[in-house]
Amino acid sequence: MGTTTSPSDSAVVTSREVRAVVGRLRRRLRSSSREGDLTPSESSVLARLADKGGVTVSELAAIEGVRHQSMTSVVNALVEAGLVDRSPDPGDGRRQLVALTTGGRQHVERGREARTEWLATRLRRACTEQERETVRAAMAILDRISS
Amino acid sequence: MGTTTSPSDSAVVTSREVRAVVGRLRRRLRSSSREGDLTPSESSVLARLADKGGVTVSELAAIEGVRHQSMTSVVNALVEAGLVDRSPDPGDGRRQLVALTTGGRQHVERGREARTEWLATRLRRACTEQERETVRAAMAILDRISS
DNA sequence: CGTATGTCAGCTGTACTGACATGT
DNA sequence: CACATGTCAGTACAGCTGACATAC
Q1: How far apart are the C-alpha atoms of B61 and B98, rounded to whole Å?
Q2: CB 3.0-4.6 Å disulfide test: which of A3, A15, A126, B129 passes with B119?
């Protein structure tokens, strides 16, 4: 081998690096996420709901970029944990509005105070502001081309 | 809410964006990976073996950053597909050396010719060279702080 | 009726831990 | 013996599709 794909192809090289880093980051983010016994998906949805409650499952699914069937099970777990609840939409009988319970709101606020998130800590301690800007710029690019 | 976490904390903001983009990219990379009926993990291991065969399961696990138990099942799938095989290490009876079969090698070479990888295509068509450089720089930073 | 919303069941892929066997 | 290597079993998480009910 060796010829494989021309290593000078910038797009291919970049793609490989992105794949490798995404894979590694994913494992790290998962393994170091002890944010109060919630799974990463659950934490993410909870944080969304803190910003904007009264949302439907389908809307949450669209925001997170997954199917509504997948979002149902995440919401179910949060309901069982007593952190969110569903209430019927008065104007549309098909809809169920999801919102934080009092306990859910407390959970979010406690988490936000106490959490020393692994990635944020690393970004703060091991990076310059310029490096963080580079990362944000790259995220914007990747977000654009992956939507 | 709205006040939530001080939005001026560059590390936290960057961390959130990285999380969001990693999640989305992961889903996209998975759903658009039809590289010949292999799962992403399998493809990745196969590509490694094309560069360097005669490797143990534990070494593969270390390279990919997973436990050896997890790597065992990936290798099992490739063995069952007839793409790799195990052979005893003559010098150490505990070890099993994993290498591509003829069919496995053919598979890799066919794949490398035919594959128009989703991410590489996007990076080529929707990005400038400067943007790709930004992405690569960011990957280097994230790789550094996640190791 | 078709469409949107939601739920449940079942499947796959990934990676984990624990238990165990075997060889150095 | 401790340690390295490897396998298997069980579990958890995340996402998918398909089937179905209900409401617009």
Answers
A1: 12
A2: A15
DSSP code per residue over B8-67: T-HHHHHHHHHHHHHHHHHHHHHHT--SSS--HHHHHHHHHHHHS-SB-HHHHHHHHTS-
Distance from CA of B86 to the nearest CA of A (A): 21
User: Is A50 within 8 Å of A108 (Cβ atoms)?
Assistant: yes
Comparing CA positions, the residue from B107, B135, B104 lying closest to residue A20 is: B135
Alpha carbons B139 and A139: distance in angstroms, whole number? 10
φ/ψ (deg, to 5) at A2: 100, -45
> Hey, are the CB atoms on B120 and A9 less than 8 Å from each other?
yes
Q: How many Å apart are B72 CA and D17 C1'?
A: 28
Q: What are phi and psi of B91, to 5 degrees?
A: -95, -10
pLDDT 10s digits, B92-106: 999 999 999 999 999
∠ CA A146-B2-B8, nearest 5°, is: 70
| pTM (two decimals) | 0.79
Residue pLDDT, tens place only, B24-34: 788 777 776 65
pLDDT digits 0-9 by tens, A128-142: 999 999 999 999 999
Count other Cβ atoms within 10 Å, centred on residue A126: 13
* Chain A residues within 8 A of B18 when measuring between CB atoms: 25, 119, 135, 139
Which residue in B18, B51, B120 is closest to A135 by CB distance? B18
CB A1 within 8 A of CB A76: no
d(Cα A21, Cα B63) in Å, to the nearest integer?
13
Burial pattern A52-81, b for ≥16 Cβ within 10 A else e, equals eeebbbebbbeebebeeeebeebbebbeeb
Task: Give φ, ψ of B84 to 5 degrees.
Answer: -135, 165
